[in-house]
Predict the structure.
Amino acid sequence: MRWLAALVICAGCKGQADAPPAPAPAPSMSAAEIKRAHDACQAYVEKVCACARKVPAMQPACDLSRAYPDAIQVELDVAASPDSSQRDVRQTHGGVRNIVKTCIEEAAKLPAAGCP
């Protein structure tokens, strides 16, 4: 009989699990990081479009580069939305960082394309 009581108690305890900890709030991007993001991509747009005036083959890159600052702003708007989950915020901040990475990498390739 004691074993049966112990078994019932153990079975009851097993069903009660601790609640999972609340996820940490998504870290926000600082104003300085946002400004650097805008500045880096705007600088790339200016450089590649200036290059396109001298090297016509760079015109498609110039045309495409103009979307980067807008894409950053869209990502930041999504992150700032009250409807965005913490996961959404983390993903959009990662998206901003990926865009900036692309701007920097593409700017580094300009000298090889014949751009000063």
About this structure: The chain has one domain: 27-113.
